Amino acid sequence: INTAHCMPRRNVQIQPEYMKVSLALTKFREATDVSTWKDSGLDTTLWGEGDDVCDGPWIGLTCEGSSVISLELPQWGLSGTLTPHLASVSTLRTLNLAHNSLFGPIPSELAALVELRYIDLSNNRFDQALPISLGSLPFLQYLDVSHNRLSGSIPSEMGDLPVLQSLILSNNEISGTFPSTIGRIQSLRVIKPMYSA
Predict the structure, then answer these.
(1) Distance between CA atoms of residues 85 and 101, nearest Å
(2) What is the pLDDT of residues 135-193, one digit of tens each?
(3) Is the CB of residue 133 less than 8 Å from the CB of residue 110?
(4) What burial letters (b/e) apply to 128-157, b meaning 16+ CB within 10 Å?
(5) Are 153 and 130 in contact (CB under 8 A)?
(6) Could you report how far apart the first and last alpha carbons of the chain are, in Å?
(7) Phi then psi for 67, rounded to 5 degrees?
(8) Residues near 149 by Cβ (< 8 Å), separated by ≥ 6?
(9) Three-state DSSP class for 4?
(10) Which of 10, 36, 84, 194 is 20 to 30 Å apart from 159, CA to CA?
């Protein structure tokens, strides 16, 4: 007896994009301890929440239409970890969190942000190795992770960044030499290795 047609159909609910983005930004706020954020005179306790995050006066967010394209909070007193939930902000092109007190690993999940052009995570306390997955970002032009506590070696996959122009790795605990794959990036103009000041 074929009972397949009698089985109840499971309702699969697809989460709207704006809800994913709002959740991701809320997780970011929680992971970076909003109580330490610089006093801007604005209420940051609900930062990133709402049906349309582009409709609110959220410091550090830039939108194009209803899409978040930039998250920039340099020197904002952020303290904590960088949540992998940011990977849900799929339209992000710029990520600038330089000069804060963020620690822990740089999430490999950031490689899901395929629109990224600019990453500046310099002058924090990130540790562990530079994620191999960052070498898969097709539009990345600028990567600065200097003045952290990154260790390990430079992934050869960094040579797979076709339009990279600046690669800044100075003042970390990275060992070894630059992989030969870096040399095939024809667009590369600025390169600061791990031992330079």
Answers:
(1) 19
(2) 999 999 999 999 999 999 999 999 999 999 999 999 999 988 888 899 889 998 888 76
(3) yes
(4) eebbebbbebeebbbbbbbbbebeeebbeb
(5) no
(6) 75
(7) -110, 130
(8) 125, 126, 127, 172, 173
(9) helix
(10) 84
